Amino acid sequence: MLQFDTNGYLTPDRNISSTLSELEQTFKINNIREDIYNLYLNYSNELKNIIGKDIKQWVDGSYVTKKNAPEDIDILTFIDYDDFEKYENELNKFFYPNSKAEYNIDAYIIVVYPNNHKKNFYYRSDYANWLTDFSKDFKTNTKKGFLEIVI
């Protein structure tokens, strides 16, 4: 069961392992949230169909708070570098600003390079930056958690 602080943020302030089912049961609680969830599901299924395998995502934004009427959902998808290079043209609509226009989702892709790859430093740097960004509310600097889901 997910835990929230008094501000309605997920706790602890890190990536919290979760499931698609838990995301749905916890946050799809009214019509506004149902619409956002359905857009997210459509986005994720279309992306997964292109890649052809399970994908890891960090799910953040006002959607994963206790806010009654969130504006949207923020997604960071982890894609292996070889898949990214293979499907780069098809992936264009899956990150911001195209994802916002197509799905009303603030979506970003992080390219995963293995430890022995010459570009692994970029992956590690991006990972650290996103972890910092998703672990706090940028407006209030309040610490918060976010979900990590594999679909």
Please describe the structure with a list of short key phrases separated by commas or semicolons:
single chain; 151 residues; alpha/beta; five-stranded mixed sheet; two-stranded antiparallel ribbon; 5 helices; 7 strands; 22% strand
Can you put this structure into words, describing what you see?
By secondary structure, the chain is of the alpha/beta class. The chain has one domain (3-150). The protein has helices at residues 20-27, 31-51, 81-91, 98-103, 120-134, and strands spanning 3-4, 10-11, 15-17, 56-60, 73-80, 105-112, 146-150. A five-stranded mixed beta sheet has the order 3-7-4-5-6. Strands 1-2 form a two-stranded antiparallel ribbon. The longest helix has 21 residues, at 31-51. It is globular.
Summarize the structure.
The protein is of the alpha/beta class and 151 residues long.
Approximate helicity band: 40-55%
Integer-rounded radius of gyration: 15 Å
Element-level helix/strand string: EEEHHEEHHEHE
What is the arithmetic mean of pLDDT?
Answer: 97
Return residue spans where pLDDT drops below 50 for at least 5 consecutive residues. Answer: none
Number of domains: 1
Major sheet size, sense and barrel closure: 5 strands, mixed
- How many strands in all? 7
The fraction of residues assigned to DSSP E strands is 15-25%
Please tell me what the overall shape is: globular
